[in-house]
Amino acid sequence: MKQNQPSFRRFLRLLIIDGICILLLRLLMGIMGCSIPEAPNQAANADVKASQSVVLPIVMYHSIRTGPESDYAITPETLESDLQYLKAHGYQSVSPEEIIAYVQTNAALPEHPILLTFDDGFYNNLSYALPLLERYDMCATINVVGTFTQYNAVQDSHIPAYSYLTVDDLSELLASRRITLGNHTNAMHHQSPRQGCRILPEETESLYHDRLYADLSYLQAFLTQQLHITPIVFAYPYGFDCQESIPVLKELGFLMTLTCYEYCNIITSDSDSLYGLGRYNRAGNQSSAAFFAKILQDIENSRIQTDTAIDMELSV
Questions:
Q1: How much is the pTM?
Q2: What fold does the segment set 54-312 form as a domain?
Q3: DSSP run (H or E) holding 171
Q4: Model confidence over 128-145: pLDDT tens digits?
Q5: Of 64, 104, 139, 148, which residue is the least packed, with the fewest Cβ within 10 Å?
Q6: Closest C-alpha to 275, from 309, 245, 302, 300
Q7: In the chain, where are the structural domains located?
Q8: Residues of the chain with pLDDT under 50
Q9: Helices 288-315 and 42-51 sit at what angle, rounded to 10 degrees?
């Protein structure tokens, strides 16, 4: 037993020295305002992830006009009813720029955000929709088709029932600071032969990319030249999305793409969560309560899914 005593004393001395070193390290780091890293806190991580995801419903409007309603046309009274409904239920419209800032920098969004969009660029979006957006303090995105603005609008302008927005009209909309302009293709807003801007069966990807790039970049350049803005939102014609289009869209600087699939979106800090967003088409001949009932249910289901995912992370 005696021959082991020096080893024991040496071990005890080292243990004391280690303890003193650790104590001194903690004191020093405390003075410097630092902290010693600890094991990851699952609850804290889940809170961070939860703060970086938001449920975003998107409504897709088209023409706002007087007369009979249809699948793609509603009256100003119906639009006003929708905006009143959203206000009453605590929803605030947000711009694409605000959503992108949330993704890129975790900038704040309202508790109940909603994105309002208008496709095709009808003149009545200015004559009827803008005054209502101003009255209810809302903003929206209008996705324009190049040929509609450059040719159709000029040939037959300022008839609320069917005319399209001219360049001067677009300038007026931008001046309101309530409107973001999106690209809806320059000359690919057709159902056939390619279904909007989808790749054709006989096209190589390289040829398709060249054709799509030529079309979209033309409208981008036109809007930049005429209005000094370059859209960062792209809406697929008729909602016909296409995976082969994504490299071109990203190359041209589009940060958000819109489809016509009807579902709520979960936006996260991942920039890819902004591609292929779903939208609910606002058809006519139904009340605001009836239209938004499905959306509100989908919002609740999406929140439940998000909460479930967080709970699963906590249990890992």
A1: 0.82
A2: TIM Barrel (3.20.20)
A3: helix 167-175
A4: 999 999 999 999 999 999
A5: 104
A6: 245
A7: 2-37, 54-312
A8: 1-50
A9: 160
